C-alpha cells in the first residue's frame, strides 16, 4: 500500500499547476462555440499529450463534422475529488456562458474511500454549477462515467472485483443525479474495461489510459453531443 500511495503522490506532484497554463486554454476565436471541460486526471490526460486528451479529441471530431468550436477550456488536475474540483473552479472563475460543458469526476472519491453520500451531495452542486456555466441550458451539459482503474496493471494484487463494484456504485449515483437534472450521462466504463486485454489502451504509467482509449470515449460521446450542441 505504501508504494501505491507514493506513486499517486508523485503523480499528483508532477501534475501540480500543469492544467493551468495558458497554452492549454487558448482564447477562442470570435464566433466559435465555447467548451468547458471539468474533471481530474482523465480530463487533464495524465501521461498523454494535450492533443490526446479526450475533450480535445472531441472538439476535433466536432470540427470535422462542421461544428465551429474552440479547444476546451480545461479545469482539471490529477488526484482531484469532487470537492477539490469545486475549489479549482473557484480559483479559476471561468466566465460563461459556454456552449458545451462536460464533467468527469469521481475516481478519487472512490480511491480515497469517501462515501457515495458525500459524492452525491458534492456532485449535485457541481452539476448545478455546470448548468450555470452553460447559461442555464441543460442540453449543453453532459457527464462521462468514471472508468474502472481496477483493470490496469497498477491494481495488480488488489481486490479488483471490489474496485469494480465501488466504481459501479459511484457511477450509479452519478447517473441518477444526471437524470434528476436532465443532464446527458455517457457510460464509458465498459470501454475502460476492455483495456484489461489490450495494453495499448493503457498509458505508460500502468495506471491511466492512453490516447487510443480517450479517442474511443470521444467517439462514443460524439453523436449525442453533436446533436445537442447544434440545437
Count the strands? 5
Low-confidence stretches: 1-26
Could you give me the name of the CATH homologous superfamily? SGNH hydrolase
- CATH architectural group: 3-Layer(aba) Sandwich
Helix content: 40-55%
Oligomer: single chain
Number of individual domains: 1
What spatial form do the alpha-carbon principal axes imply? globular
Largest sheet: 5 strands, parallel
Rg from C-alpha positions? Answer: 16 Å
Briefly note the structural class of the backbone.
Answer: alpha/beta
**CATH topology group:** Rossmann fold
Q: Could you give the distance between the termini?
A: 49 Å
What would CATH call the class?
Answer: Alpha Beta
**Biggest β-sheet: strands ordered side by side in the sheet:** 2-1-3-4-5
SSE arrangement, N to C = HEHHEHEHHEHEHH
Organism: Runella slithyformis (strain ATCC 29530 / DSM 19594 / LMG 11500 / NCIMB 11436 / LSU 4)
InterPro entries: SGNH_hydro, SGNH_hydro_sf
Protein name: Lipolytic protein G-D-S-L family
GO molecular function, one term: hydrolase activity, acting on ester bonds
Brief write-up:
With 231 residues, this protein is of the alpha/beta class. Helices cover 47% and strands 9% of the residues.
Highlighted features:
alpha/beta; Rossmann fold; 9 helices; single chain; 47% helix; 231 residues; 5-stranded parallel β-sheet
Amino acid at each position: 500500500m505504501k508504494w501505491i500511495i507514493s506513486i499517486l503522490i508523485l503523480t499528483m506532484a508532477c501534475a501540480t499547476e500543469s492544467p493551468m497554463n495558458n497554452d492549454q486554454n487558448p482564447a477562442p476565436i470570435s464566433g466559435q462555440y465555447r467548451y468547458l471541460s471539468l474533471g481530474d486526471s482523465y480530463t487533464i490526460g495524465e501521461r498523454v499529450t494535450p492533443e490526446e486528451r479526450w475533450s480535445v479529441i472531441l472538439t476535433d471530431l466536432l470540427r470535422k463534422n462542421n461544428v465551429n468550436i474552440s479547444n476546451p477550456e480545461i479545469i482539471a488536475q490529477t488526484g482531484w475529488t469532487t470537492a477539490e474540483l469545486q475549489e479549482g473552479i473557484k480559483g479559476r472563475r471561468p466566465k460563461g456562458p459556454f456552449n458545451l460543458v462536460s464533467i468527469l469526476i469521481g475516481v478519487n472519491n472512490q480511491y480515497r474511500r469517501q462515501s457515495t453520500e458525500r459524492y452525491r451531495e458534492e456532485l449535485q452542486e457541481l452539476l448545478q454549477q455546470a448548468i450555470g456555466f452553460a447559461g442555464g441550458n441543460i442540453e449543453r451539459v453532459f457527464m462521462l462515467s468514471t472508468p474502472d482503474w481496477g483493470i490496469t496493471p497498477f491494481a495488480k494484487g488488489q481486490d479488483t472485483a471490489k474496485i469494480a463494484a465501488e466504481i459501479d456504485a459511484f457511477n450509479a449515483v452519478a447517473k441518477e443525479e444526471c437524470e434528476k437534472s436532465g443532464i446527458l450521462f455517457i457510460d464509458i466504463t465498459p470501454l475502460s474495461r476492455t483495456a484489461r486485454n489490450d495494453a495499448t489502451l493503457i498509458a505508460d504509467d500502468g495506471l491511466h489510459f492512453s490516447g487510443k482509449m480517450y479517442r474511443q470515449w470521444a467517439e462514443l460521446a460524439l453523436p449525442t453531443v453533436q446533436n445537442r450542441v447544434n440545437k
